Model the fold of this input.
Amino acid sequence: MKFIKERGDGHRIEFEISDDSTLDKVFEEFENFLRGAGYVIEYDKILDLVKRDE
Done:
């Protein structure tokens, strides 16, 4: 699985993790990818799944 962010200035951020990673590991690495791409995610917060209201 790869997460890739290409910016207009020629910079590229790429994270690759094993396809058999747990969902928790995918979320953890996606958080790191988002941070590397410039998004601010506080280190005392995590991504989580929540049930969508229908």
Notes: Residues 32 and 54 are 30 Å apart (CA to CA). The mean pLDDT is 89. The first strand starts at residue 2 and ends at 6. The helical segments are 23-36.
